[in-house]
Structure prediction request, 457 residues.
Amino acid sequence: MSRVQLLDATTAPLTARRYYQNGDPGPLVGALATVPELLEVSMPFLAAVLGPSALDARTKEIVIVRTSALLRCGYCVDTHSVVALDTGLTIGEVHALRGEGAAVLADQRENALLGWVDAVSGGRGPVGDEVARRLGRYFAEHETVELTLLVGVTMMLNRFCTALDLPTSPEVVRRLAAAGLR
Amino acid sequence: MTAIAGAVADGVLPGRVWLYSNYHCNLVCTYCLTESGPKVDRRELSADRMLEVAQQAAELGFTALGVTGGEPFLQPDMAETLARLGAILPTVGLTNGTLFTGRRLAAAEVLAGSDVALQISLDSADPDVNDEARGPDNFARVVAAIPALVERGVTVRIATTRELGDEADMSRLCELHRGLGVPDSDHVMRPVISRGRAVTTGMGVAAGMNDLPAELTITADGAFWSPFGATVHGGRLDTDLLLTRTTDPLRVPALTLLGLVEGRPAGADSTLNIR
Prediction:
């Protein structure tokens, strides 16, 4: 049960209505719509950070699922597990990113990425030299900036969705069950 | 000239800004948009906050104010507050008119000669019909209050909210308000709108964004498209006509409203005569 009312198409404020034109936009929009001026600025921002960009989609979903698992955001882990599968990650890879199975990301680039994600999301100070050096072998500086912002924004969403106890949508639950991820 | 001032001058945007002073009321009307009553959440705007909004409204280029509720005169010193608002912009204050006796009637004298009109609800020339919707003795209290206010120099308008039909009763009502000292030009009528308690009682006509005047409306809970937007149903604030939660600075909801009005296709607004 969500901590706040989730607005639907009949209760959505005027400037939020376009997010409902293609059906239920999900609980994140439903919650943000209660403050429509924040929805107006946050959705384009979130789309820019989480959506298609200079970083490939697989890399981004690895970051999002891993961060969400570390922050224990059930809603975000569930929702982005489905996105990750759609992006081409295997069920085994998603299991591993969720912390539910043995690590299966053999690729050194992706392991360097996981090291960076773990250090950014779990650390308290600057990322250590060795972790940064490993990431720098595979990612340019502008990509490091984008990856770090992606981890940070995911953490923000993790806390938002968890604190407000946003419910995983039935369609996501069905997809996860079919994949043996729930 | 601000964008708002230009839009108001061009007739693109209505000039009036509404303030919901509070949501509680001494009455429990059958068609109340806000489900108001004595025990509801008050959702108050303080006098100082209303004056701040009024000042910003004037600076942005709005040309008039309205105060509504709930029953605004349950707020302490409402007459004095209205007089101060009227010194900033011409103001209409909506009231059920049942509280103007004794101290409150004397206090209303501050409105004499001011740029403030009190708009009092009276729905029928038949006391029983009026009181069925608005509560026992409502008719008697209102017809006593109106001439008492007029005699004290207060400008009084009458607002009639009713389902369609019964022209004979309307004719008698007009005779009545003329006799009470209120001319035809100060008598406004509107249909019952199917929002708030009217939904529960099965009354009124449906009205959406394009049926309602795009009058910026400020409440304790945010800014809305029209005073008919900031309604309550089932104890919850309706959000379908919410503009922004931000009301300070006023230009934030004002520009949001203007953007919506300018994005509306020409001729999309309807003519339910809701005002």
